Amino acid sequence: xxxxxxxxxxxxxxxxxxxxxxxxxxxxxxxxxxxxxxxxxxxxxxxxxxxxxxxxxxxxxxxxxxxxxxxxxxxxxxxxxxxxxxxxxxxxxxxxxxxxxxxxxxxxxxxxxxxxxxxxxxxxxxxxxxxxxxxxxxxxxxxxxxxxxxxxxxxxxxxxxxxxxxxxxxxxxxxxxxxxxxxxxxxxxxxxxxxxxxxxxxxxxxxxxxxxxxxxxxxxxxxxxxxxxxxxxxxxxxxxxxxxxxxxxxxxxxxxxxxxxxxxxxxxxxxxxxxxxxxxxxxxxxxxxxxxxxxxxxxxxxxxxxxxxxxxxxxxxxxxxxxxxxxxxxxxxxxxxxxxxxxxxxxxxxxxxxxxxxxxxxxxxxxxxxxxxxxxxxxxxxxxxxxxxxxxxxxxxxxxxxxxxxxxxxxxxxxxxxxxxxxxxxxxxxxxxxxxxxxxxxxxxxxxxxxxxxxxxxxxxxxxxxxxxxxxxxxxxx
Length: 478
Known about the structure:
GO molecular function: O-acyltransferase activity
Organism: Leptosia nina
Number of strands: 2
Keywords: Acyltransferase, Endoplasmic reticulum, Membrane, Transferase, Transmembrane, Transmembrane helix
Number of helices: 17
Subcellular location: Endoplasmic reticulum membrane
Strand content: under 5%
Protein name: O-acyltransferase
């Protein structure tokens, strides 16, 4: 208990020091001018807990909201068990089906990631032997670059080919494709950090132990060392993994209670009324947003904190208070700091000085949108770029639209941002199931393709005959 208290005290002291530094930056004199001071570079990784962990410890209000979600899960679960005992279990088993094949694909990805380390050592050793021959160094650098591209290509290409050749269950496919991109980004991070060392900047290459730790640490930025906690709190690990399992079941309940009743028969009849489709979309708005919030909590809080505890990784800052933002630029940065920091360091910053910040922003959004779309396409078994249009097109357009107005009217634009979350998640939870069940229920056609949406042609969406609108101001009607 004494060790835990001292560790918690160290974390709080580090957070307080960071807050004091941030406050010093904006200190003003009495005449309103900024006090000139020497800039002190803040440490990138420090001991600190995740924001929700701090909020739930310090605020009973946040803790109550957490309890509300748990209570909703228990009520849904109780209602479901009352009807049939195997509710949601079938969806979990189906969603994570063929786990053996998924594990083989993951082992292939891990093997390539581990193989990168001896390749890096070989490159550095040969580069040291030919360091006095500039022509040979140029040729060897080109060979090293081509080898890196080939390894990344095999890692991504072979995984995508395998999943496209034979469809894997949705949950298993999401897991292996996310791991594919995670390993690819970690290899890129190590390469950027270690190439100057290979070219003789006086710093030694990381040991295999350091590289292996980085492969499983919850960060995509490589450093030789990170802040480490003193011991593993296995109770915390078990608690967070139980939260991950609960969220998986939570989403399966939402799927069975809100998606299947509206969309499981989609495509069995040649025609469907537009009103039925609209009602189904509105019915999916609330469960879609709940799934969105649960997905955030599951991956960026529970899962990352569980692995951070196992790896004794001290910096638990995986996200910021994105729910309070009024500008989309701030939201995108705060939503997922693990990925956004990688995109910032390895895509945005190298491109911005040469092509400009707007072009760099577009490239970042394009790369991120394509990665998300690959995950969804391989998981569902079809290409339907709804998320790409929402994230890669609308997301880019909303950046300048909310840049100044969101700063001037934060409350209004925070409300509008949440409204867009409701609409966007409702569309995702409607359009993807419509396409999924249209491909299952509609009869085969010569026009069927991985890239052509089936739901556009089957079933036919028609307006109800004699469609009329009621006048809400007609008092005689009442």
